[in-house]
Amino acid sequence: VKNRGQNAITEKTVRKKKSASVSRCASLRLLAIASFLLRLRAPSEITIQITVCEIMSSATETVEEQQKLQIYPTSKAGVSPFWRDKYERDAKKYWDIFYKHHGDRFFKDRHYLDKEWNSYFSASGGKVILEVGCGAGNTIFPLIATYPHIFVYACDFSPRAVDLVKAHEEYTETRVCAFASDLTGDDLDKHISPSSVDIVTMIFVLSAVSPEKMPFVLQNIKRVLKPNGCILFRDYAVGDLAQERFSGKDQKISDNFYVRGDGTRAFYFSNEFLETLFGKEGFEVEEIGVCCKQVENRSRELVMNRRWVQATFRLSNGTKNPSEEQERKEVVDSTDIDISDGLAMEMFGASPSTHEMSEFKLRDSAFKIKLLSKEYQHTCKSTGLMLWESARFMASVLDRNPNIVSGKRVLELGCGCTGICSMVAARSANLVVATDADTKALALLTENITTNLESSLLGKLKTGVLEWGNKEHIEGIKGLASCGGFEVIIGTDVTYVAEAIIPLFETAKELMLRKVGEVEEEKPALILCHVFRRVDEPSLLSAASKFGFKLVDRWDMNSKESPVGNIVDRWFYENDLVAEIPSSALHILYFQME
């Protein structure tokens, strides 16, 4: 099995000898069962025919199925039920964060509305419009500027978006009434009189609602829409570039429904889905079509296909105006595209940076670490792109106690993209090798090392790919040590996956320097710092003993047990270090070879 240092355990081909051995064992077991069944059956009962080839084939298939062990689901698994519920429960929060970051800069003003739907807005008499999912007002303000006789109600379930609308220089209560409302649960008629709205605009908004709750939105709208009132609709279509970019990622919630990296969601509509959805709620389709637009980036030689559905729905007791219908049919050929520069960048793969800078301070120095932004961490499967509390803590310990690694060869397992323990250790150690199985994390680590480490120390800190249990990787890391092993091996938050514990200690044993010292603190050591999650201490100690590791000392700030030794306690003689501990749940286990 292939094992990852910090992240997931992924698949590795089992050696042919081992595979054949397991196959033979499985075959023998199946033959024994078949023989037993044959002895039991009566002559007149069913005949059991099993050949050795069939058994071997079955056994081989079983082995192949068991060769793959993964901590995280494959891309076909999609979003887990826990996260699916969280995205639904916190939808308002994610959109609030979106508008906090982007303000009114993300979407373009929709100046195409008068060209697309002029016949609806310019009809005689004052019109009352309801803009559902108003965002920062990109639909509202172009409308009131073009049609002076209309009044617009505007709602959004992000209070921050509503605040942006009210702060707009063109906002006036005589033309616009903006309010926060979640149409999947809040009643619109608390803000708008029943049967008083002529036109509802739904521009790229229904896609943000889970398909199960879309009927509730339409029922809510129906209560305030006049008889013969209509809905003007534009939203993402199946086959859009953005949907294609989701393929192969674990961001699928359900059919055609995905979560973006920032926690907001998007549904991709087909004509059939919309006709059924609106039809069940009493709406007739007046016009519907898929609009296609090729967007070209000549500098990058890319051509991207955008697809969206544009439709008009009217309450089924209304009557159609033939002249309007003819005009609306031409809308399908429109080339206007409703994206901002930010969206265009995302389309071309040059999406705004998903990284952020985090400052980590020590006594006399500070590190500026580039890592994955917090808003993207919940959909990221790589734990190595984040900075964990245990790494912060262990880096502080090494900073205050340089003697732990002074003059020694140090290996960090599962260092991730931050590598702060390795960078601190490089100040005192003879050599430090920072390893991880995630190549993306290592690429970012290299950037962080170059940015933060003094040029004189760069030669002492090396990086390498290491999947625990991978013999080729282990030999490569041994080569970096030059003398056959490491005197100190450090791992922070690398014990959270049960399946990874055995390969962890197996790898540590292979890379530990075989040296017997007279003083206990001078003997090679494996230091693990972590918060106990899915693997408890007895399980860790049991796995460690299988590979010749014994627990020499442990540390736990809240522990009432007597310490095993007196090594780790001496690291905390300075009271201010104890005060800096980020979590009372942190533990340190100090191992040596027996």
UniProtKB/TrEMBL annotation:
SUPFAM superfamilies: S-adenosyl-L-methionine-dependent methyltransferases
Domain Methyltransferase type: 130-231
Methyltransferase in keyword set: yes
Pfam family, one: Methyltransf_12
Protein family per UniProt: Belongs to the methyltransferase superfamily. METL family.
PANTHER family: METHYLTRANSFERASE-RELATED, TRNA N(3)-METHYLCYTIDINE METHYLTRANSFERASE METTL6
Listed name of the protein: Methyltransferase type 12 domain-containing protein
Species whose genome carries this gene: Brassica rapa subsp. trilocularis
Gene transcribed to yield this protein: A04p025660.1_BraROA
